[in-house]
Amino acid sequence: ALLAMEPPASAEASSLHEEQIKVFHSMQQVQPENYIRGQYRGYQEVEGVRRGSKTETFCALRLDIENWRWGGVPFFIRTGKGLGVTATEAVIELHEPPKAFFGHGKKDPLPNRLHFRLGHNPGVSMDVQAKRPGSGLESASVNLNVDFSEALGHTALPYERLIGDALHGDPTLFATERAVEGTWGVIDKILGPVGRAHRYDCGSMGPKAADALTRGFGGWVQPADPQQPKRGSPAKR
């Protein structure tokens, strides 16, 4: 909702929350065919996990927001345990122009993308197409990166910020009751064990079945800010 909302009328928490609610009201319910569940191999051997458990350790889905700004633009989300990298980021793929300036080489150029890194190492990076040296009109992907901790100095960790806000009575970053209800409404049709939990290996990026969601849209974008997880199976929560 923070990514898709319109600019709030003010910096007040109430204005921010109101714009988030508008996004939830515009979200279509996630359909089972746009939802993939997964479970990493070895999960059922974790202490405390019941044999035959159908609990998912991975999910991927497609969201559609039917409003003036985002109509026709799909949002793809994936999250899970035991994945190859640990990163929290939002990737925005820019629409291709009506006529491509590059693309006369062996293959079409990759789209320009914005990466918003969140969590442990906040920052912004952008993948842009730049002309390769020489007389031809071929492009190469170039990454422009800003690390907020280097550019702006130390920033509080996410939980430090939340605990501080709670102590000061600042509700800006906390979910409201209406936002929580809006979230449940969007995922109502996929609550429970909808479909099979596809198996995947620890260290991968999830089950292959999730690739079908982004087929026709360029596929999943690999995280730009990898943080290698600890070796071994992730702990059960």
Helix content: 10-25%
Low-confidence stretches: 226-237
Main β-sheet description: 4 strands, mixed
Enter the CATH topology name.
Answer: Dihydrodipicolinate Reductase, domain 2
Task: Please indicate the percent range of residues in DSSP E strands (runs of 2 or more).
Answer: 15-25%
CATH first level:
Alpha Beta
Describe the structure.
The protein is an alpha+beta fold and 237 residues long. It has one domain: Dihydrodipicolinate Reductase, domain 2. Helix content is 19%, strand content 23%. A four-stranded mixed beta sheet has the order 3-2-1-8, with no helix packed on it. The radius of gyration is 20 Å and the shape is globular. The C terminus is likely disordered.
Which key features would you list for this structure?
237 residues; alpha+beta; 4-stranded mixed beta sheet; 4-stranded antiparallel beta sheet
Brief characterization of the structure:
With 237 residues, the protein is α+β, with helices and mostly antiparallel strands. The protein has helices at 13-26, 148-152, 158-168, 177-186, 211-214, and strands at residues 35-40, 58-64, 74-80, 88-93, 113-118, 123-131, 139-147, 197-200. It has a single domain (13-214), classed as Dihydrodipicolinate Reductase, domain 2 (2-Layer Sandwich), CATH 3.30.360.
